[in-house]
């Protein structure tokens, strides 16, 4: 079939500024006339011509509501803008890490390679007709578009007057694997629907020792539970955990992807992953059933993860530190050593201690995976992580939830390889406590105040910046209490990228205490409405006799100081956070 290109007149629409995680809004915003089209055309216009004309693009996402409509629109706009071919995961499903893997690894039958991708996701935010939708563009390295591109996209959205679309191109059947061929003014245009999991599974098998993990999962002493929260991870869970690794089908929870995530909030934390938390023995009521040895959860687009042991929660900050400490021995991909490690600024300093002990390059970066990507592209970083349940490595340029689960299963398999027939397996809790005994423990918690009035949130942050000019005033708020040491430094985190020299300012407000404790305040841009204030509280304990305390109890004095210092109640009207992690 031959299609025609239409030029559709449009006008700019306010508020199309993409953040570090792309553009996220309510579905009702995205379905406005021209809204999605304006953003997609503005993205094409921000790219160099060779990244569009004759190029191969990936278009897929986490399957949330409006994805199928959006995919058809983007295919038609790709055709009109001279793209040569579009690759779509079957049913429009590709996890964010799988998209990165497809860009980096997949080769078409004609030798084609992707140069970028439109990823349709709002990550860990809810889905459905009245919930969130999102879109972001990833580059040829598989990572998110850098600020220079997203700034250009935003500028284009403010001046756009028309977009190109092949309106007569028929809708593609994205449920069936195959290739559809068309012709347009600039020649051939193909749409290939391919298996969502194959490329990603192949990559995971090249990184981990699947046979060793399979032996662990086949042990009668080891039980396992994985919760996809009805997100796109379900498209990979059965293939990897059941077919490849031999886990029982019953070990998979909520692994059928749904447009509304089953009405739940696909955020893998102790608040929203209720079913998994209860099954792992961490619920409010005691269960008579013995919990599994290992549990994990994913978010909507499968780039985040939560790791649990039997009645035991592993903080994301501890998780990345423990993976880094054990990677060389337990994961074949890292057997020749780590190039370096990195964490986001709000993440606890547990990884710093591992880096120092193992003499590894270490980097502290702003929140946003693109900063890790720069380090990885330069060969400076192998493993990295964020406290917001994101962990990953240089195998792709996104955080990777399934990778993190396989990393933990690899560590457990390695620690137990001579012990599968013994009396007792080394558990998740054993591994964490052994780590604390060697490296010390970073007591850590995060308070999220979601959907706060945006003006009030900005006022609170401005107050804290002003307060930083006087350490005496800060310490007077703390008072004479002996259980919290004095603040010795207060600043706004600023980062100079060692690779490209770019400077990122205003990346979070920090209060650093004499004993190594920290308070960090950040405004988060990951929600679609209002503002989210994140408060991070951390205290380091090296004395192994004191590393076994309850985290909230150990941090209670610091929490009290943080709330008093920030005047949280006064500015926001909130007497308690929405989520405590």
From TrEMBL:
EC number: 5.4.2.2
Domain Alpha-D-phosphohexomutase alpha/beta/alpha as annotated: residue spans: 16-163, 199-308, 317-417
Domain of life: Eukaryota
Reactions that this protein is recorded to catalyse: O-phospho-L-seryl-[protein] + alpha-D-glucose 1-phosphate = alpha-D-glucose 1,6-bisphosphate + L-seryl-[protein]; alpha-D-glucose 1,6-bisphosphate + L-seryl-[protein] = O-phospho-L-seryl-[protein] + alpha-D-glucose 6-phosphate; alpha-D-glucose 1-phosphate = alpha-D-glucose 6-phosphate
GO biological process, one term: glucose metabolic process
Cofactor(s) for this UniProt protein: Mg(2+)
GO molecular function, one term: magnesium ion binding
Keyword annotations from UniProtKB, A to Z: Carbohydrate metabolism, Glucose metabolism, Isomerase, Magnesium, Metal-binding, Phosphoprotein
One Pfam family per UniProt: PGM_PMM_I
Enzyme class: isomerase
GO CC terms in record: cytosol
Similarity annotation: Belongs to the phosphohexose mutase family.
Description of how the protein assembles with itself and partners: Monomer.
Role noted for this protein: Catalyzes the reversible isomerization of alpha-D-glucose 1-phosphate to alpha-D-glucose 6-phosphate. The mechanism proceeds via the intermediate compound alpha-D-glucose 1,6-bisphosphate. This enzyme participates in both the breakdown and synthesis of glucose.
Protein name as annotated: phosphoglucomutase (alpha-D-glucose-1,6-bisphosphate-dependent)
Higher taxonomy: Eukaryota, Viridiplantae, Streptophyta, Embryophyta, Tracheophyta
């Amino acid at each position: 079939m031959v299609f025609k290109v239409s030029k559709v007149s449009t006008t700019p629409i306010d508020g199309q500024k993409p953040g570090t995680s792309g553009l996220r809004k309510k579905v009702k915003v995205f379905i406005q006339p021209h809204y999605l089209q304006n953003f997609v055309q503005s993205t094409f216009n921000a790219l160099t011509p060779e990244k569009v004309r004759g190029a191969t693009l990936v278009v897929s996402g986490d399957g949330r509501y409006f994805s199928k409509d959006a995919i058809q629109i983007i295919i038609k706009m790709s055709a009109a803008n001279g793209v040569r071919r579009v690759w779509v995961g079957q049913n429009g499903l590709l996890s964010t890490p799988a998209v990165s893997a497809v860009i980096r690894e997949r080769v078409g039958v004609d030798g084609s390679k992707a140069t970028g991708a439109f990823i349709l996701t709002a990550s860990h935010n809810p889905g459905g007709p009245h919930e969130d939708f999102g879109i972001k563009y990833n580059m040829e390295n598989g990572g998110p578009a850098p600020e220079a591109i997203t700034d250009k996209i935003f500028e284009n959205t403010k001046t756009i007057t028309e977009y190109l679309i092949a309106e007569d191109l028929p809708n593609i059947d994205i449920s069936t694997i195959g290739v559809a061929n068309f012709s347009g003014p600039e020649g051939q245009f193909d749409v290939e629907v391919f298996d969502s999991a194959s490329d990603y599974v192949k990559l995971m098998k090249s990184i981990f020792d699947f046979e060793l993990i399979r032996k662990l999962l086949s042990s009668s002493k080891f039980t396992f539970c994985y919760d996809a929260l009805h997100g796109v991870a379900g498209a990979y869970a059965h293939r990897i955990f059941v077919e490849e690794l031999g886990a029982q089908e019953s070990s998979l929870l909520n692994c059928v992807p749904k447009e509304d995530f089953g009405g739940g909030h696909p955020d893998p934390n102790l608040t929203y992953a209720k079913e998994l938390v209860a099954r792992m023995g961490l619920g409010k009521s005691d269960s008579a059933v013995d919990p599994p040895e290992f549990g994990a959860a994913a978010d909507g687009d499968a780039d985040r993860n939560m790791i649990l042991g039997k009645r035991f929660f592993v903080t994301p900050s501890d998780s990345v530190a423990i993976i880094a400490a054990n990677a060389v021995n337990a994961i074949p991909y890292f057997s020749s050593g780590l190039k370096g490690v990195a964490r986001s600024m709000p993440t606890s300093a547990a990884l710093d201690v591992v880096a120092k002990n193992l003499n590894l390059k270490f980097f502290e970066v702003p929140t946003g995976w693109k900063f890790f990507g720069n380090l990885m592209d330069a060969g400076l970083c192998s493993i990295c992580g964020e406290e917001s349940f994101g962990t990953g490595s240089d195998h792709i340029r996104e955080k990777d939830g399934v990778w993190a689960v396989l990393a933990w299963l690899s560590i457990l398999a390695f620690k137990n390889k001579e012990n599968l027939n013994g009396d007792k397996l080394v558990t998740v809790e054993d591994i964490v406590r052994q780590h604390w005994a060697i490296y010390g423990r970073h007591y850590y918690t995060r308070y999220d105040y979601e959907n706060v009035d945006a003006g009030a949130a900005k006022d609170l942050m401005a107050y804290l910046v002003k307060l930083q000019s006087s350490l005496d005033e800060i310490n007077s708020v703390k008072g004479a209490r002996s259980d919290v040491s004095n603040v010795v430094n207060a600043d706004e985190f600023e980062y100079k990228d060692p690779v490209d020299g770019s400077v990122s300012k205003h990346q979070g407000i920090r209060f650093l205490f004499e004993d190594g404790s920290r308070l960090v305040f950040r405004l988060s841009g990951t929600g679609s409405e209002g503002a989210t204030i994140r408060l991070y509280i951390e205290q380091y304990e090296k004395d192994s006799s004191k590393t076994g305390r309850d985290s909230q109890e150990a941090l209670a004095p610091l929490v009290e100081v943080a709330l008093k210092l920030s005047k949280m109640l006064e500015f926001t009207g909130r007497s308690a956070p929405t989520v405590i992690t």
